[in-house]
Write the structure tokens for this entry.
Amino acid sequence: MIHSLFLINCSGDIFLEKHWKSVVSQSVCDYFFEAQEKAIDVENVPPVISTPHHYLISIYRDKIFFVSVIQTEVPPLFVIEFLHRVADTFQDYFGECSETAIKDNVVIVYELLEEMLDNGFPLATESNILKELIKPPTILRSVVNSITGSSNVGDTLPTGQLSNIPWRRAGVKYTNNEAYFDVVEEIDAIIDKSGSTVFAEIQGVIDSCIKLSGMPDLSLSFMNPRLLDDVSFHPCIRFKRWESERVLSFIPPDGNFRLISYRVSSQNLVAIPVYVKHMISFKENTSSGRFDVTIGPKQNMGKTVEGVVMTVHMPKAVLNMNLTATQGSYTFDPVTKVLTWDVGKITPQKLPNLKGIVNLQSGAPKPEENPSLNIQFKIQQLAISGLKVNRLDMYGEKYKPFKGVKYITKAGKFQVRT
Amino acid sequence: MAASPAYGEEKGGSSSLGEPEYGHDPASGGIFSSDYKRWGQCGRRGRGRALPVWPPLQALAALLGGEAVPEPGPERHPMGTGTGTGMWMRMVMWIGIRKLLRQLPVGPAGWQKTPEGGDVAEEVTSPVLATEAGQPTCYSALRADELRPLAGAKPAVDTGTTGPPPRHDDLKEMLDSNKDSLKLEAMKRIVAMIARGKNASDLFPAVVKNVACKNIEVKKLVYVYLVRYAEEQQDLALLSISTFQRGLKDPNQLIRASALRVLSSIRVPIIVPIMMLAIKEAASDMSPYVRKTAAHAIPKLYSLDSDQKDQLIEVIEKLLADKTTLVAGSVVMAFEEVCPERIDLIHKNYRKLCNLLIDVEEWGQVVIINMLTRYARTQFLSPNQNGLTCQQESLLEENTEKAFYGSEEEDAKDAKAEAASLAKRKPYVMDPDHRLLLRNTKPLLQSRNAAVVMAVAQLYFHLAPKAEVGVIAKALVRLLRSHSEVQYVVLQNVATMSIKRRGMFEPYLKSFYIRSTDPTQIKILKLEVLTNLANETNISTILREFQTYIRSMDKDFVAATIQAIGRCATNIGKVRDTCLNGLVQLLSNRDELVVAESVVVIKKLLQMQPAQHSEIIKHMAKLTDNIQVPMARASILWLIGEYCEHVPKIAPDVLRKMAKSFTNEEDIVKLQVINLAAKLYLTNSKQSKLLTQYVLNLAKYDQNYDIRDRARFIRQLIVPTEKSGALNKYAKKLFLAQKPAPILESSFKDRDHFQLGSLSHLLNAKAVGYQELPDWPDEAPDPSVRNVEVPEWTKCTSREKRKEKVEKPFYSDSEGESGPTESADSEPESGSEENSSSSSSGSSSSGTEEEEEEEEDSGEQSEDKEEEEKRPKRKDKEGSHKAILGSAGSPSEEEEEEEGAKKAKKKAPQGRKGHAETSSEEASTSESSSSGSDSGSEAEAKQRKVPPRSKASPKEISLLDLDDFTPPPPQPIPSSSIISTSLVTDLEGLTLTDTSLTPTLLSPAFSAVKTYELLHRMAGEGLAVEYCFSRRPFPGDPHMVAVQIQISNNTDTEVKNLRVNEPKPLSGMRIQEFPEIECLAPGDTATVVMGIDFCDSTQAANFQLCTHTRQFYVSIQPPVGELMAPVFMSENEFKKEQGKLMGMSEITEKLTLPEKCRSDHTIVQQVTSAANVGRVPCGASNEYRFAAKTVTSGSLVLITLERREGSTAQLTINSEKMVIGTMLVKDIIQALAQ
């Protein structure tokens, strides 16, 4: 299936290659570079490129292109999903999936890739199994290794591969048994010029951090499970149980993982926690324009909106911006034409405002369209959909774990058209 | 970064760092120098970019200059990730510097003044020691490598040596050392080289030596190296093979698996046979993980040598029958790569795969679902033919576009045809297996893995009834939140689906709204979907959305939007005018691209109803002054030419302008100018005659031959001359004919003939190895091919056992199914008849031996950690499966039966059940009263009276017939058997004619059955076990010899759980245990039957006989005569066969018959007692012939005994199996001598 993998950085260096079948020359990447040049923007590089003898399927993550070489028919999503899984694994191992991290850990990267695919077919992709096979690097371990001569490769054989709950390793032991659940909801919305909502929905995830000894069997129930319109599960969840009782019943993996992601039906009205007043205009002749944006909170059940950041992709004709912010700080990058305004917390008494003059390229026609505003924000201790965890029960183990649930609401793809 | 050096410089400057990036030649290019370049920020593929200044160079310079050691904090560290502590970094730094200094052939004067000067001097002489002292980590080592070229880069230091020494000497040395840490270090550096695409093949000999290294990490890295380079260095790679072969025998399953993995990854054609063997062996390994690895190895071997296909298919077939989830995904992947066309291999495993699916790992699920989609398309009928679904379809699918374009008659015709075909069709009933697939895949829509969701979605799209397809929309929309690459693929598929099934995605219309931050390719796809979803009700919303898009900064996107509007306008008549007006407004847009695109779209729209729009055409005519985009200009000209009658005044003027600028136009515009001229000439020749001639003259001398040709052609056509004549008359018709309006279609139309979600679908072209999605068959193929012969009897000795059985995986018994069904039918009756001395419970227990095996299986599985966790799911599946099979009735019926037998009630219920019971009872009573001779015939008589069971299947009937024919075995009583034997043989001789050509296997002719002792009463502590060869075909397996075992409990306590344990058969030998005897009361006796396949050898079968307290090692050694089964043949046939078995296969022995053994009767009796043979009729009175076949291999054994004068006789045995022949001769002579 997957023949080879090339990692390419933004400047076009192939800094790592791995072949699972016979070697494919680096020159195959030239087709990719060609497509990349044509696409101008990195985002527009087509994920699937057909070349005379191969097909290239690539993803772009953290300024790295993962380009895989395929020779025969394969579901493209299969490859894309796998490549993302590889990137996730690097992230998991090295804390970041950057070029430097990969170069610094090139041997571990290689060992990982070797284990993840066999003859191009995924073999071990569960992080728990991989960690049994190859220990992630830590400062302490690299010091110890250098003194004792021991290695990163686990010397115990990975029994997880044999089990039918491959996501959990055997013999987990903790002194403090804890289970944390973060209910994170994101609001995706498009707000039109007049401030009315064109489209809004809530996407949520429950990320868990579970450090429990032995083989705990957990079941998590909600106060209002009917809210969840569409749910996708981690493989550990028993589907039948959810279907019949709307209870999440599972033997959890060890450590951090995403338990479910869900969507709250778009039919429900979504409470938009902020509003934006904007006045952006460009004058035809003076090669300047006015920019005036105010962000304010709508009523949010008494919670404050924090971490507010606004980013705006200004039209190409904009040369510079002279603005004053009543709160927070703004930056404008004249190369990428991106305006970023870091607002921080919104206090209803004094609404944050950003106002000033836009300098346009002289002689250039005025931009036709006002740029849309992308807003980010965060509200702690609130799930905007109203989802509430009812209880967490544990079976199969004797001890009493510490349980914690946290709610956060964030802006997802939150866009205001102007 | 400095300015880039010129191309030539880079190549020429050997002393500089600028070596060609791609040079892998270790001798000249140098691995380290090019390493350095790779790691640096030099430009893409090394062309025309300068090299960076290496930060440590400055640090080093400082050092060399005699300054005190600087404090190299992490921030000065070139590769420092900021994670190290200061101390650690310093250490690492120093190691690097030491190594670097080693490279300097002559040290500058300054360096010895550094505090560590002494050490450094030492290290220069012994590089290996130096590394030992340092124990650098991998990443410090890398740095050292990178520093190396600096030595060469500094001409001041480099004193005349012609470059660095052969590259990998130090690595080789490290690999040869006996320290694991050094080896590891070296291997890490080598792997780093491989990772960067450097050539490290010259290290092969040094690396391959370490394949047996004890250190696991070294070993793994060596494997990495080996797999990478073995193909290039085949001979050397062979050195490593023995290590893997050893690994294949390791008791640890993980080591076996990894050995197989590497062995199969080494692409060396010579080892194909070894790989084949290893795969075959691993395919029947105990561990499912090893079997999984074997499945992975199959495509590897196949790609190496496709001649092995047939053998590999056998392995695949075997592995497909595997019932563990671990193997399923991998073997289907192998199936898809090796033999996707062998869909017949799936039949028997179809239901199992459906049921296991949810527990298979994600990647396997994708492969299985895709394969099952194809399978289902060949095996089931289309669910969308039925009238009901048709209606639903029409609800889902609107015909707006059809109504516009397709003429109404056509529609009516369609409808009629549909109605007609409906009438013909039978009401559709979905195959339960089809339903099973749909039901079992549905939960996977909830998978976190986008590939799985997509796979299920395409399965539903291709297989589900239209009314059910809707469920996938929600899941697909969910995927739109994922990474942009995932979005891209999903949107492509949604675009295709939304053409066929618009209703499905309509509720999610808003999810396809476009954000300004989406990448352009995503925007365009979303636009496509929105356009496909547009209908009369939602068009206003969509157009409002489009309006915002038109003002976007992304011009490609705007152009796409205009086209989308055009499509909406053509498809939905209601809004055509609105759209047209909007587009006309766009004509005054400042962006030329937008205007051009609008012109093109407007042209297409106008073509539909030109008359009303002369205003627009006029407006557009004005645009020719401004618009420069060729396509747009061409479109305007075409419009004016086509509708010149609507704008009679403007048209000639436009032509005048165009004639003026003709020479500067693009080709495509020139062609349209010529067209325009021609049309005007035909309609308005007065005004445009001269202009036309001018244009044609210009075109005549154009550079482009297309234009010249066109001009010539048109001139001939329109200007009347003597020659042209006839054509001229039709010129007007030719040019001004009504042209059909173009149809604006989605590019995704009809893409669904590719399997959705596939690469081919995405590319809209057949990819290599794409398996065509077959069309539905007209007639459903036989659904019974999928029937797995599930053992129908579920007789158990107790209820608990039954329950246990329910809990374990349903399919765990898929091995050897064919046998058990037979045994299920034949056993109860034969058991009851045969076990004359047994209690009634014994008879029912004999039926359950197959079950015993199953239990064993499940036990094994729980060892393999297939435990309770999955139980609940399994239970569900099983339940569903049972319902589907429809055989649910039989277990309960059998249960009843079993219970009836157990309780042994006198009152006989209806049917055969009662008969079996009574007959068994009678048999046992008659036995106990030891009226031996009668019992057999009596039972037989009874059997005859019994009418065949009404419920019995055909198979059962045949078996019953056989039983009717065969006298039941009254074995321990010789007297009765003598009679029956001779009777049977005589009868046979009479009834059968010479015409029967094939030797028929007959039920045995019985003679005295000898019992042997298996366990003596003393040795068995009161438990006595005897066995005899009952000479009946073993019900489970025709290749097994049935061994009847009689167990008597002579102790004064109960013996419980009597069973066979741990059979240790020799190679090829198989043992089918008898079912466990739960309890044997003191003084009681039980008789059971077990089957042993002796492989036609007289080797003993060893096994343990266990009770709840003890284990006894016992063995059964068969006399050679028991290894065969009688065969009936005619005299001619016998002679014919004998003729074939001459020479080596013939053994002749002379013997003297003793006094008492001279009558026919005795001779026959003695021979048949010595061997399980059947008599063959013979014309001569002094000759006796017998024939048999060996049980396992079915080789013929022919015996001829010829009586000479007096007491001498000659015995001839013809058989392929010479050993059997010789032994048989001995045995028969011994028997006759008695």
About this structure: The helical segments of chain A are 29-39, 76-94, 99-104, 106-116, 127-133, 139-148, 239-245. Chain A touches chain B through 112 residues (CB under 8 Å). The mean pLDDT of chain A is 85.
